[in-house]
Design goal:
The complex is a heterodimer of chains A (about 150) and B (about 70). Chain A has 8 helices and 8 strands. Chain A is of the alpha+beta class and about 150 residues long. Chain A has a single domain (about 1-150), classed as 3-Layer(aba) Sandwich (Glutaredoxin), CATH 3.40.30.10. In chain A, a hairpin with a 6-residue loop joins β1 and β2. Chain B is built from 3 helices and 3 strands. In chain B, strands 1-2-3 form a 3-stranded mixed sheet. The chains are: A alpha+beta (about 150), B alpha+beta (about 70). The interface of A and B includes residues 117 and 125 of A. Chain B: Pfam families: BolA (PF01722).
């Protein structure tokens, strides 16, 4: 592949790179990119915008699966409004890529700071036993439920 | 080993399941790792199942739940 412009053109041997990385990594790359954005270092240094990322079916205002909806509702209860979502129904390669990336067979999938937290069942259990408040706090998010507790 | 499997697909067609697994293997492992253990055992099955709800418990957690 030739890339670049005005004298800065260069040849990137995509086939060679693909061969070197192997099929598993290649499939996961798209998902990794979805999590980290273009600037990988931002997310690694935990200053990225993508503190909470959800791979789901549909969008938060219109989830197309009960389990995705449950995740959205749990986050809403904790006052988490600003998070990045990806609708895997719109992109089959992302749907498969994220499963490969996180080694997790089902959607939805929740990530805090690029780290896989779990799917619907795990998030629900974390919500029920209070772990979610703690985990949110670790990534710098004050849960609305925690706020309630301090008020009381 | 206590284990519960419920077919929750519409019309019980065997595509959606709610599963509770109690095992000493879960002892001392975080929940994510417990789920991963089960997922790895069901790798092939999960590819064709539509929905899979899982709850994992250690023997102690199972006993405590029964008391409640």
């Amino acid at each position: 592949m030739y890339a670049g412009h005005s004298g800065k053109e260069r040849y990137i041997p995509v086939h060679g790179i693909v061969h070197q990385l192997g099929p598993t990594v290649c499939v996961s790359l798209l998902a990794a990119h979805a999590l980290t954005g273009c600037d990988t270092m931002c997310s690694m240094n935990r200053i990225g915008k993508k503190t909470v990322v959800v791979f789901m079916k549909g969008i938060p205002t219109q989830p197309l699966c009960g389990f995705s909806n449950a995740v959205v509702q749990i986050l809403r209860m904790h006052g988490v409004e600003n998070y990045t979502t990806y609708n895997v129904l719109e992109d089959e390669s992302l749907r498969e890529g994220i499963k490969e990336f996180s080694n997790w067979p089902t959607i939805p999938q929740v990530f805090f700071n690029g780290e896989f937290v779990g799917g619907c069942d795990i998030l629900l259990q974390m919500h029920q036993n209070g772990d979610l408040v703690e985990e949110l706090q670790k990534v710098g998010i004050m849960s609305a439920l925690q706020f309630d507790e301090t008020k009381n | 080993m206590p284990q519960e499997v419920e077919d929750v697909s519409q019309g019980m067609c065997g595509t959606s399941f709610r599963v509770i697994i109690v095992s000493p293997h879960f002892e001392g492992k975080p929940r994510l790792q417990q789920h991963r253990l089960v997922n790895s055992c069901l790798e092939e099955e999960l590819k064709i199942i539509h929905a899979f709800q899982l709850k994992t418990m250690t023997l102690e957690q199972w006993k405590n739940q029964k008391i409640q």
